[in-house]
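Hey all, quick one. A colleague (J.T.) asked me to put the adenosine-5'-triphosphate job into the tracker so the inputs and the structure tokens live in one place instead of scattered across chat threads. No bug as far as I know, just bookkeeping. Sequence used:
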Amino acid sequence: MQHPINAPILYIDDLNVWYGKNHVLKNLTFDVFPRQVTSFIGPSKCGKTALVRCFNRLNDLKSDFRYTGKIQFNGVDLYASNVNVTEIARKIGMVFHKPIPFRKSIYDNVAYTARLRGIKQSLQLDTIVEDCLRAVQLWDEVRNDLHAYPEILTIGQQQQLCIARALAGNPEILIFDEPCEQLDATETPKLEATVQRLKSQYSLIFVTNKRRQAARVSDIAGFLYNGELIEFGQTEHLFTNPKNKLTEDYVTGRLG
Ligand SMILES: Nc1ncnc2c1ncn2[C@@H]1O[C@H](COP(=O)(O)OP(=O)(O)OP(=O)(O)O)[C@@H](O)[C@H]1O
Ligand SMILES: [Mg+2]
């Protein structure tokens, strides 16, 4: 069942995050709605990665992580004691700045996440692998090399493979943290096109330090500065008619 489009899939209320004594996110309040691309922009170290790592509980890996406030996923406290963290990692997939395919065949990279949700039947796995590779427009390029290792792929293809692997988990949210960082000028538009195609089915969160990329790919944008969410709203407004002077300075390139 698809998530109702008018209810937030993520609800963040007065979120504060610390890494040890470093207060990295300050009083953040916003909603993320499904079937949209929500981007977060801002200078290096402003807290973009720290924020998105709250959404799939990756921050739990840091022993000095602490937060206050509310983080709800589909109306449920994401940090409740009965939440299954492995399940969250599947439902809220993440694509990192550097593609990290597993040391497995191209087929098994994608099938891995489907197997995690209990799918064992080989015909069903074949279908999922093909569908997910088609969704990232990689199928035609790899259909004859499914049992080869991902090393034969370009970095851009490896990144698309990592997206396909996340899709095989049947996620609700996909987070991209500067996914084009290692990609070249021909690969970046392909990844942006994939993001556009996926938004009819998923909720997408896109972190980038490239202002124009956020303007191209996102419907909603948030500008973070020193751990504060300075402005959050329609991407078009944020770029063409920002309410805040700091936002204006950032989107026009005068700041960081
Ligand atoms: N592993 C870590 N241990 C301690 N502090 C960290 C760690 N990673 C990030 N920080 C701190 O958290 C704050 C937010 O960093 P974060 O990585 O979220 O910024 P960012 O906006 O993603 O930056 P970038 O554009 O460089 O990726 C910074 O003060 C940073 O120094
Ligand atoms: Mg980062």
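Adding what we noticed when we looked at it: The longest helix spans residues 122-135. DSSP finds ten helices and ten strands in the chain.
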